[in-house]
Design a protein that fits this description.
- The chain is built from twelve helices and eight strands.
- It has about 270 residues and is of the alpha/beta class.
- The protein has a single domain, classed as Rossmann fold (3-Layer(aba) Sandwich), CATH 3.40.50.
Length: about 270
């Protein structure tokens, strides 16, 4: 029997420093008990997802791109039901791969994604062609922002390119480091107003996270609060966000991340 592909979620941000990687690692830890999960570190040149999993990968996407290993051989086990496809660390050329190299990655992920229920992409910050290709290939995209004006502006820029590249894409918003639910609501309203005015659509807010010193303390311990400090305020908020995302993703019909990424990079006809 042919198994369906994993449902895919890209966790993205218009700029660095919004807490995107911590959110991704936390969601991976919370989703894995609900179904086998694959975490893809898509910041291929300067990835750090392995740090928050407290692992030191012997293989990364660099080995796949350079033809030494298959994507399956490059996987790193991070727990009973959680695997990591790790990025390179300090490999500048990996931040802008050729279409052929991206196709190699996409082909490898397509072969193994049906082994998983969830596929989470920890996106590189910004709006590069490579970053947008990964976001558009996912079934849904969660944009992480903070109340800072620069973060909100860059979140809108990301949203604009996401909507321009794929009609009908499922876009969600998470407000991180908010002082209160009122501040999170105001951030959501501001982004929604601009999106509806200039794009004709806006992301739906899936929740918000408080500023909590437990986050930086856990990162320094190479982990995240939901596993190291489950009683922390931010951990409680993350569990609510994860539950909301489970419902959101359950309503989707997975398109297949690997195949969708192949279409995005334009090599399907030549290599299918």
């Amino acid at each position: 029997m042919v198994r369906p592909p994993a449902v895919s979620l890209c966790i993205a941000s218009g700029k660095g420093g919004t807490g995107k990687s911590v959110v991704t690692a936390s969601l991976a830890a919370l989703l894995a008990p609900r179904g086998r999960t694959l975490l893809v570190d898509a910041d291929f040149g300067v990835g750090n997802a392995h740090i928050l999993q407290d692992v030191s990968p012997e293989a990364t996407c660099v080995d796949v791109v350079e033809g030494r290993l298959s994507a399956r051989e490059a996987l790193v086990a991070c727990g009973k039901d959680l695997d990591l496809f790790a990025a390179g660390s300090g490999v500048p050329r990996m931040s802008e791969l050729s279409s052929f190299e991206l196709h190699m990655v996409a082909s490898g992920l397509r072969e193994l994604e049906s082994d998983y229920r969830y596929l989470l992409v920890d996106s590189a910050a910004g709006v590069s062609h490579q970053t947008m290709a990964f976001a558009r290939a996912c079934d849904a995209t969660l944009i992480v922002t903070t109340p800072d004006l620069t973060a909100m502006t860059d979140a809108y820029a990301f949203l604009k390119l996401l909507f321009a590249g794929r009609a009908g894409t499922r876009a969600l918003l998470l407000v991180n480091r908010a002082a209160s639910v009122e501040e999170a609501d105001e951030v959501t309203r501001r982004i929604a107003r601009v999106g509806e005015r200039f794009l004709g659509a806006a992301p739906r807010c899936i929740g918000w996270l408080p500023h909590d010193p437990a986050v930086s303390a856990c990162v320094n311990r190479r982990g995240v609060p939901v596993t190291l400090e489950p009683g922390a305020e931010v951990s409680r908020a993350l569990r609510l966000v994860a539950s909301a995302l489970v419902e959101e993703l359950a309503a989707l019909s997975p398109l297949g991340f690997g195949s969708a990424l192949q279409r995005e990079v334009g090599f399907v006809a030549r290599f299918a």
